[in-house]
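[Protein data]
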Amino acid sequence: MKLSDYVMYFLFEKKISHIFGYQGGSVTHLIDSLHKVKGLTYVQNYHEQASSFCADAYARVSGGVGVAIATSGPGATNLITGIANAFFDSVPCLFITGQVSQREMKTKKSIRQQGFQETDIVSIVNPITKYAETVMEPEKIRFYLEKALFYAQSGRPGPVLIDLPHNVQASEINVPLLQSFYDSEEYAGETKRLCHPDPQTVTEIVFLLLEAKRPVILAGGGLASIRGQGIFEEFYNVCDLPVVCSLRGLDAIDHDDEHFCGFIGSYGNRYANFAVANSDLLLVLGSRLDERQTGPDKTLFARKARIIHVDVDSDELNHNICEAISVCCDVESFLKEALVAIGGRTSDHKKWLAQIHRWKVQYPSCPVHDQACGVDPNEFLHILSRKVSGKAVVCADVGQNLMWVAQSFCLSGGKQLLSSSGHGAMGYSLPAGIGSYYAAPDRQVICVMGDGGIQMNLQELQTVAREKIPLKIFIMNNQSLGMIRTFHEKFFNNRCFGSVSGYANPDFEKLAYAFDILYTKTSTREDFDRLDYGLQTVGPHLFEVVLSPDTQVVPEPAPKRAVEDQLPLLGRKEFDRLCEMNDIASQNEKI
């Protein structure tokens, strides 16, 4: 069998149905072989970065592995942003790159390049992959493919890369003689290293949870691995626990559930940050506790709480925060063991939940809006969230639009949120929407982005139009790079170079017309009623949401203060009145 044929049949047998990519001289064998496999579909984008984002989103929505393919040299290097994105957000992806034929590969490190479009992509991506390999011996192809998929999905998931020289793709192999990775000592050793929770430690944690007066769960991205299983829901219901969420964990709980207590962090909901600040026990599930969650001074984070951290990555434990108990295992194993330890016991934290909900009423993410002031982004996105399908996939970009979504988009009824959380790559939303559609064509896909983010992968509107992908695309247009503009205004004496000055947008209505995509403009609250028709239209639809050029994200971080002390700062008396328990010594005071 031809090796490139084997690669594609292998992927099909692993339940992969779509592969994203861009044609090139060094992958012609592979893409030709792809079209020989019934049930395997090739989706060509217009930039390899978009292909990598498509694969990322496909993996998140399908629960499997996303695959993207690119040619050697610039094709391979264009994948790097998406590879890094999958690495930092723990998304299982397989990236396949073509390489020049072996005779063209350089044999001396002292020369820069030997073959046309030759690049040592494996060396470049080693720091941002779990495994990367150039296949020099055709008879090892099964071993390398099995090893790659194992590493992509085991432990803390992440991206892997297989680099295939052009002549290797064309070589003939004897399939029955191919060596399996699963028969190797390496595989046996890796399975022995997988972590399992200690039952005695879990029993101790359960006792502490049931006895705590103000416990809080911090739901992180690690909960994505058990999405839809019901284990997490059973756990927080039995223990009656408030749940706050990191950006990656926002869809871990239905937002209409009484136990949902908001989005934490620098741009988080005030009431969620108040809950963490007042907690006496914080159970962190699958979150790395980065500075956007804790604030720059980590000694001020949850300083009255005993912190218990569960994570599959041992390097993340006791890394950013001093923890009382650290458990290295996947969250599914922990929760199953915890439910066993709980047995028939229950706990009641209704008073504590009521306190958090009083803060939520006092500091809502969508305050009452003056109708004369145009469109408020938080209000708009909250209303939009109530109009979209209950199973919608929401792809948010990076910048102010993402923070507005995190603060105000109600993820109820099974909605799923995708974003470039760790890497923070603008241009993610549109190709992520494409990947989401192919992973679940029966689900509505909503893409939210800024006027800056849409221009990062604008060419993918052609993919959407060509394939008639029914994305509903929302451009939050405040005519600037809003997040950077805010920094310029606050810290650079309003010198907005690049965020306002030297920055411009196209006419988005003409742009939609050019790609033969339906267009709707929303510039007042009265226009909100037009959303229903637009959301129900067949095919793609682009909505331009016109915002004030001065639009801000509120609340926002206050430098050198605890994460709950957000701008605009509360008055001392106001905070003391709200914080009835008065357990924390907040730094809040009037400016």
